């Protein structure tokens, strides 16, 4: 029964988080901001207000495909947000600019996350192979190696949290100070940002839970081998 509840949690939590962000985005993408600025306009204004002129803003296909590319110095906004004038679009655009500001200021957690990317990718790709073989073959040392690889990916997820929360806090502050949103729009904007943050919290929580479960399996295997 315990394992069933565990698997229900790790499956349902990410699904619920994803549903919440899509629900909030869908709702507030239909609400136009009082400034009537497009997401592209919002991004460019905040960048200019912060003296960042080497970052470009361009549209990209898909829904909620918005992201900041630090290597190319480009903020890519999904077309609905790039061309649209919604509260949701302004919130998403400001959030991505928040990452650009972090990059511009050499924000420590962002630098740490970037440095972890290669290690996290290796961990994600190889950990489950080692873990699966270790459990099936009853080889605790191989399982432990898989856990070590997985730990890198988990650390990446955890480090992502302050990066994303900081970007959202910067977004709210910039939207208010630049006059993009009014006081009565702050609550709606924050709902979009908070919903998006939940997806990262859910991913980190699931990763930590899975790591703990594997450590317990390893402990049990090691004890049985003694």
Task: Explain the layout of strands and helices.
Layout: H1 2-28, H2 39-49, E1 56-60, E2 67-69, E3 74-78, H3 79-83, H4 87-104, H5 108-137, H6 140-177, H7 186-225
Parallel strand pairs: 1-3
Antiparallel strand pairs: 2-3
How would you characterize the overall build of this protein?
- This protein has 226 residues and is mainly alpha-helical.
- Helices cover 75% and strands 6% of the residues.
- It contains 7 helices and 3 strands.
- The chain has helices spanning 2-28, 39-49, 79-83, 87-104, 108-137, 140-177, 186-225, and strands at 56-60, 67-69, 74-78.
- A 3-stranded mixed β-sheet has the order 1-3-2.
- A hairpin with a 4-residue loop joins strand 2 and strand 3 (74-78).
- The radius of gyration is 21 Å and the shape is elongated.
- The protein starts with a helix and ends with a helix.
